[in-house]
Design the sequence.
């Protein structure tokens, strides 16, 4: 057995794969994508300290609850049921501290006089500070207290690992592969034998915008930050979409939203992919033909945006302004990314538009 | 300072007459205006064409034609803008390392400080000064939002009116 002396063959690293092979893998992998969710779904539950009283006589429970609801409403703890077995929530520790210097015993005795003899004991307990959003959170909560819970089937699915059907997954992976093919197209003008690392370990980014209602590529862009500091691919893509709607500010790409030569290159490699937009109708035309506004494209409303790399703060906010519907990215952008790495811009509640974000293509 | 903001407010009024969200902006180096613009979002059908982004473009253009390194050029720029830069513009100005940003009124819908403080994500932060002629800047915005955005789809404009 001569093989014994040979060193074990090293598994080739991902980074050594050719870009062509890598694109094939992106396209053909069956791995489902994952949504990037706000912290309330991913971080451990926040607890808050609450005074709980053990009642002397369980028969008095409903009367006690009625009195408490009147004198000490739960307010920010509405998601919690008032009672559990023989214990009832009195109020949060913070609430009592802001109201009075009294202890809970003194407070009940003096300020909720009707209940002065109702309790056997008082204690402080940690209870969930926010309502459960998911079944698994509800299950976790129910071990400590009973909660009001309204299950949301869409949220449950979004938080799971089987969100997209196999056919949807094929489409998303195909559009992501096109984003990489865009990089391949431009980079191959500069260099032969491209490796995956030529894309993964650089600033290279490309954006593909898709109208899912007609399954068609609307706009494509390739990062131009080397020549212009705000011409990141998402910003260019937003402008290219504008060009398909009688607008646009930058003198780039074709009026169709995609550079002509690039489009024919992509068509050769992705024969089944459709290009083009729904007809853009001006407001005047919509009014004239008595059509609903939704019959014309408006900015990136309803569009899916596929990017090689997680967009930066500027680009992410640009996509919010553009009202993109979903953003997909492959690589994290640890230094500048705003949809996962540095912040989750799409989860900032006070913004007027929120898109969904998906990743885990690898 | 006040004169530069006055000019920015003029540009904002111009935007209002053109049925754009009334925000105006001037870029200043050594007390001299080197770029000025206003919102052109509706005209370009591009929601990123804010006054600041347009000014950045015109500075880049200027630097390219005069063979100037734009990064060192931006270091001396003070931005006067009638409304606090949005998260997108604040990030762009931070990337370009402008010296200072002076704004009129706060932007409680999109502000790069008020809504999400982007200085948390950047090593470099420009000096940020607010509340210069804020009343005038806010008055223009109020005038705009009294009427519906003419470019928003009909249904949305109606919905927003109902919710107000």
Sequence:
């Amino acid at each position: 057995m001569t093989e014994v002396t040979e060193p074990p063959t090293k598994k080739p690293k991902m980074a050594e794969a050719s870009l062509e092979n890598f694109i094939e893998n992106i396209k053909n992998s069956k791995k489902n994508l994952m949504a990037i969710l706000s912290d309330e779904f991913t971080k451990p539950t926040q607890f808050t300290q609450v005074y709980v009283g053990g009642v002397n006589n369980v028969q008095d429970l409903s009367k006690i609850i009625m009195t408490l609801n009147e004198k000490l409403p739960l307010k920010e703890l509405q998601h919690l049921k008032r009672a559990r077995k023989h214990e009832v929530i009195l109020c949060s520790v913070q609430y009592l501290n802001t109201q009075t210097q009294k202890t809970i015993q003194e407070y009940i005795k003096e300020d909720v006089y009707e209940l002065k003899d109702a309790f056997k004991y008082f204690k402080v307990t940690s209870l969930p500070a926010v309502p459960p959003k998911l079944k698994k959170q509800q299950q976790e909560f129910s071990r400590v207290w009973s909660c009001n819970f309204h299950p949301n089937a869409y949220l449950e699915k979004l938080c799971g690992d089987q969100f997209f059907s196999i056919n949807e997954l094929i489409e998303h992976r195909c559009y992501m592969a096109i984003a990489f093919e865009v990089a391949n197209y431009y980079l191959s003008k500069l260099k032969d034998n491209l490796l995956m690392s030529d894309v993964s370990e650089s600033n290279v980014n490309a954006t593909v915008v898709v109208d899912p209602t007609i399954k068609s590529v609307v706009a494509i862009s390739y990062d131009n930050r080397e020549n212009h500091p705000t011409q990141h691919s998402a910003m260019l893509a937003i402008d290219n979409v504008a060009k398909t709607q009688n607008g646009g500010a930058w003198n780039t790409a074709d009026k169709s939203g995609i550079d002509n030569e690039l489009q024919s290159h992509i068509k050769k490699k992705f024969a089944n992919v459709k290009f083009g937009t729904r007809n853009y109708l001006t407001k005047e035309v919509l009014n004239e033909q008595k059509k609903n506004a939704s019959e014309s494209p408006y900015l990136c409303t309803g569009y899916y945006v596929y990017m090689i790399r997680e967009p930066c703060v500027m680009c992410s906010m640009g996509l919010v302004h553009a009202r993109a519907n979903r953003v997909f990215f492959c690589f994290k952008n640890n230094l500048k990314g705003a949809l996962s790495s540095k912040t989750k811009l799409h989860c900032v509640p006070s913004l007027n538009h929120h898109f969904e974000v998906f990743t885990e293509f690898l | 300072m006040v004169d530069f903001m006055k000019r920015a407010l003029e540009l904002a009024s111009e935007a209002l007459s053109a049925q754009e969200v009334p925000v105006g902006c001037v870029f200043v180096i050594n007390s001299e205006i080197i770029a000025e613009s206003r919102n052109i979002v509706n005209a370009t059908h591009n929601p990123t064409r804010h006054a600041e982004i347009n000014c950045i473009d015109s500075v880049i253009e200027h630097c390219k034609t005069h063979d100037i390194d734009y990064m060192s050029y931006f270091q001396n720029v003070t931005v006067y803008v009638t409304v606090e830069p949005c998260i997108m513009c604040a990030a762009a100005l931070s990337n370009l390392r402008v010296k200072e940003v002076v704004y009129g009124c706060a932007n409680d819908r999109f502000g790069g400080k008020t809504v999400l403080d982007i200085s948390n994500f950047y090593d470099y932060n420009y000096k940020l000064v607010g509340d210069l002629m804020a009343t005038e800047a806010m008055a223009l915005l109020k005038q705009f939002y009294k009427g519906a955005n003419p470019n928003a789809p009909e249904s949305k404009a109606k919905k927003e009116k109902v919710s107000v």
